[in-house]
User: Fold these one by one.
Assistant:
Number 1:
Amino acid sequence: MARSAAIQPTSETHDVVVIGSGAGGGTVAHVLTGLGVRVTLLEAGPMLDPMRDFKEHQWPYDADHRGALEGGARYFSPVPRTHFSAWSGGWELDGEPFTVDRGSEFQWFRSRVVGGRTNHYGRMSFRFADYDFKPYDRDGLGENWPITYPEIAPYYEKAETLIGVTGTFEGIRSAPDGVFQAPPPPKAHELLIQAASERLNIPCIPNRRAVLTRPLNGRPACHYCGQCGRGCQGGANYSSSQTQIFPALETGLLQIVDQAMVREIVTDGNGKATEVIYIDKRTGTERRIRCRVLVLAASACESARILLNSKNEEFPDGVANSSGVVGRNLMDTVGYGLSARVPALEGMPRYNSDGAGGAHLYMPWWRWEEQEALGFPRGYHIEMGGGYGMPGIGSFGRVARAAGYGAALKAQARKEYGTRISFEGRGEMIPNDDCYCEIDSDVVDRWDIPVLKFHFKWSDYERDQAKHMAETFHALIDTMGGIASAPRARDASGISVGGSIIHEVGTVRMGDDPETSALNSFCQTHDVENLFVCDGASFVGNPDKNPTLTINALAWRASEYLAEEMRRGNV
Amino acid sequence: MPDAPDISRRAVLKQLALAVTAAGSGAFNLEAARVVHALVGEERQAGGYIPKLLTGEEFATVSRLAELIVPADQGGGSGVDAGAPEFIDLLCSQNDDLAELYQTGLAWVDETMLDRTDARFVEATPDEQTALLDGLVEAEERRRGSLRRGVLFFDWVRRMTVDAYYTSPIGIADVGYQGNAVLSEFEVSREALNFVNYRIGQLDELENSGGESEEDEPDEDEPEVDAR
């Protein structure tokens, strides 16, 4: 794997410096180098070597701790920790704290490695619907995007064509069709779920995931080991590292500076970004890199943090923050999950149900024409789990407690294995004034960089939506004769903690009005014409569709615009 | 699980190295990897495991508990066969809190058995041993009784024994997991399809047959961050 030497202090000006290598930064690097533009990519974590770093195909017994982590740390951790996933980070990072305001709850998942969170993410790849870009016009809540579905559709197509997405043509307005590879057939338990959903008139269609079922551009098709979350050594699923960054390195136009923790953006007093100050984590020393154009793609909250930490005479509230919206408009996805034991699945002949590393079916939002009757705005889609998963730490904990010990315990494990299914609702949040991040003036990280403080509160819109999810899931479970793991919700206490769905977006939002937005529709900051923000920070709303594909599409569109502006000498 | 074939460890390692080199693209010979693992495990057993933290007596007590919690039967071996005592001892050696929990718990087990029988746990008869475990399960359900002090420890040793068993080759084979394989196409077996279609045909009877919800916690599988 090519690894560049650390940049030496020099007067060399780099054409385009990109901060961050996830879905946004990876797309920018790939598109710009494809157009002949030189790119220098700063990544806060190390270079990635999938063959060395991904634990694909390992068995739990390949680790002495079986996945419980050293000292059984996983047994004692309040947040999920796992040994096999390709995280290179997690819910907590040593020396990199963040704070949460009293009365708020928020979690922040960070992945410090080339490819970022795309190395392990769920690969759900849904286009936003046409109406998702004009939500204010529908119900008077939130804001409209400065972009329409027809404007972004060609970029969805380009992204899908590159990364490879499974799916079928359904003609459902809430879930626009795209460029699809053939999906894998449904798993056995999913057929039972689909039959139940049909009884409830909920559409249940082939999932749309960035996992190849046919070879594409030298990447192999999926081999159905079901371990996408560990990273795919062959690159059969989409990750920005393997699909975009490594191919971009082949052009000779991409240079990667890894272990580069960005502190601050420097401007020249005339509305131009000229330099990035970063910490070389290998040596702990501060370095500077000069740039003609700067693209922030460090993840929504990290990008906001960098802008807010870049205060100078020209931008006393942070670079590109004359509107004051940087850090505001923080959104996550509304999550609610319910699992069930389905006795009807007991006794099914075992088969290898691993599949393409996630559900092969899903349920898109189906009631977009009846919003007023629902009592809450917007909607959600339903993801599902189940099947004969690879046993791991905790897989039979509930069985053990229920069965006592001994022969009965083993018999119960055999009987219940593979009979548990789960539903996960993924819904749209309405942005509110209580949800934002700001710089915590009292806390710095290990490099003395001030950290983020989060404020986050759901409103009744989200709580009512979560209650609706609970009712839907109970209805599905009842239809299959299942036994739910939680009683019917009388309140929305099962709603996810903000940030925990890892769809945080909106903190440097785009818009036509520079007074109320920081970016134009090409992700270019209103204040600094050679500064772009190409991650989920640009989102105006957060529809129920998982954000990655839209980050890809917006970054692609911004990159083509940027290359043209550079060619014309405008930036 | 594969039977360890009658070939030398060196030959297998060589075969594995060749498989890795030949694959190149990232696939490798899973079967060879498993054989190597099995051989390594056999060597460790042949050499005898030396506990890192627990005393010999404590280790023997944990081993007997693991055997009782997950006994050998026709579907698979025991918690001891799966390496549960080693797993527990290793993690205890890395975690003072866990070590104290086990040391205190194991002492309680012996004291309690001595009160009942004048014998330490491992020296008691199988009937006396299962009587104590039955009492612990009962105390766990009723949350009262003189044995309730041992319930927390019992839950830990059961939890970790169960984890060690079902993460071992014999436990994985016991429940019949068939995955972690390289396939050219995904398909559901004909037998499973027939079964599920039969169930779908029974939906009218299945509806609402599940009854009340179970309020205990669902299994905590590998956290599904990748499903978000």
Number 2:
Amino acid sequence: MNVSSMKIRDMRKALDNKDISVKELTNEYLSNINNLNDKLECYITVTDDLAMKQAEEAQNVINKGEAKSLTGIPLAIKDNICTEGVKTTCASKILENFIPPYNATVMEKLNSENIVMLGKTSMDEFAMGGSTQTSAFAKTKNPYNTECVPGGSSGGSAAAVAAEMCPAALGSDTGGSIRQPSAFCGVTGIKPTYSRVSRYGLVAFASSLDQIGPIAKDSHDCGIVLNSICGYDPHDGTSSHEVVPDFTSKVGKSIKGMRIALPAEFFADGIDDEIKSSVLKAVDEYKAMGAEIVECKMPSLKYAVPAYYLLACAEATSNLARYDGIKYGLRTDKADSYEELIIKSRSEGFGDEVKRRILLGNYALSSGYYDAYYRKALALRQLIRQEYNAIFEKCDVVLTPTTPTVAYRPNDMSDPVKMYQADICTVTVNIAGLPALSTPCGYDKNGMPIGMSIIGKKFDEATIIQVADAYEQGFTPVAPKL
Amino acid sequence: MKMDLEMVKYLAELGKLEFSDDELSKKADEMTDIINLMDTVKEIDITYDALKDNHDVYINDLREDVAKESLATSKVLQNAVNSNNCFVVPKVVE
């Protein structure tokens, strides 16, 4: 039995039938991590002792016949999700030694199902970036070509799934941070509807945009993990009371008659030809399955990247004000006064990209600039929502490329403006608070994965999983050669 | 628009950050390019409707005030320099 290549749903059966024990399963993944983490740098912290302890507990639950959906399933967790007693660094020097005194709500939910946590995965510092190269501790490599980036900010989670160093992982997505690395690493990732998953214990970047979601081998597995992390949480004032359905309930159902929107602007200049061609081939397959393709427009797309960065950085500058070197986090030893302690701790602890975004956020919120930038970005948020609402009056889902290029070499994207513009295909989803997933739809001439995004109506994750699964059934993924 | 050093210094001050002269000059160049990208939003003439957001979007679902056990002091202080169950900061009064 090749355990590492199994899907979560098959692992469930194997565990419940006692074909494999949780300990064997956990050992298999810890061994993969041991063999590959020096090369790929997916994990910042590997929690092997904890994993073995949790494996034993999970086995007892299974033996009693009380297993839940994820009991005994090994998972990796992005290092911006608070894990009680386990370092949570956000890939930042400022949180290098931070040990949370409490669990994020998603961890409480996963622990209540007796998952096995393998470790904490690398990311761009404070989730600010699309390459995982701003991580202070582990600059993750792409399993398909270790000279290329895995994407980001959840690059450690996506690369770990692709390299079979975990069967699934949690990431977070503020402007594409689950979907873009999933596309770059040839795996599937879902950003749920804003408010679906509690943000309590997710280290805040941009509170009106952040959302936790799963990355796995395919959309069905993503749905299984999503089932276990959603639901109302009184600790998060933006958490939704919406009923949580079984997100896998539509898997395998026909998509005949479904209306799939293609906004022309997502297929314009600036998107690589090989990506357009792969996504359009998938469109042909959907047509062959009986779906109706509807061409449409999203004129506001040209303003989406600046609107996103103005909103995200304005919120980030406020959220990051809490790092003062006093209550937790890096504390300088070079300060003589209170003011100096704060300034020096922050200046030593934050990396370059984080500092850039603090400056931009302060600029957007400053007197004299607030109306021209921040308020205009809020107006654009409303316009983008309106345009999606108009599309969803006539269509069931929207289909776009996930990224304008495949994974690149770090030096090819050292200019911040170029890096920001690369988020063009993903940011509107966060701005509008919609659910979306990215799933592989091909490989370029060099064998690098290409992802397509399926965007759904609010709270309609089940349909995007259904549509993605319909395509995945006929798609054969190519594993990275490691 | 070219962002001048004084503006970058002002933004850094607001963010409680300090930069060397070389870093400041580099940040000014980077911020000039970034603001040029942000200026795209000025091309469109639309107005933000705060009332619409209040109706349509933001959930502000506050809990009832219920007394519950809080984190233990030792847990709150576990990541800080502390003494006698207090956070320690440099002297702030003369």
